[in-house]
Amino acid sequence: MIRTANALWTGTGRDGKGQISTQSGVLDGSPYGFNTRFENEKGTNPEELIAAAHAGCFTMALAFALQAAGFTATELKTDCAITLDKEGSGFKVSKSALTLTATVPGIEKEKFGEIAAGAKAGCPISKLLNAEISLDWTLA
């Protein structure tokens, strides 16, 4: 399976503007630039997209892992915070912090913790990231 996206950039790094589009069309010319990445202007940025990808990937991996163990979640809600740190003359994504609230009928806390840890380690986006990955979870 191959999924695609593209970025178009015009101008300089600081004053230029970009657009990001995805194969599915969910993003279609979505604006990004210095002001959306390092300030709070409307638009997206690479770190926000990584956070969305990691939250979505982990949550889906957890749903599959719970199903394989005989459980069905009523709800899995994952927030992801990506940390972008200065590194030398550039920047590095250094951390991805997953925060999960889960409602899974009939599961014991210890078993859920094992399954969640496995999903965190096995999710394809976790495997992609060269960053510290943490998971805090609450079982409702």
From TrEMBL:
Which Gene Ontology MF annotations are present? peroxidase activity
Which InterPro entries does the record cross-reference, listed alphabetically? KH_dom-like_a/b, OsmC/Ohr_fam, OsmC/Ohrsf, OsmC_Ohr_Peroxiredoxin, Peroxiredoxin_OsmC
Q: Please give the residue ranges the record annotates as the region Disordered.
A: 1-25
Listed under GO biological process in this entry are:
response to oxidative stress
Output the superkingdom of the source species.
Bacteria
List the Pfam families hit by this protein, alphabetically.
OsmC
* Record's protein name: OsmC family protein
The species this protein was found in: Phreatobacter aquaticus
The organism's taxonomic lineage, starting at the top: Bacteria, Pseudomonadati, Pseudomonadota, Alphaproteobacteria, Hyphomicrobiales
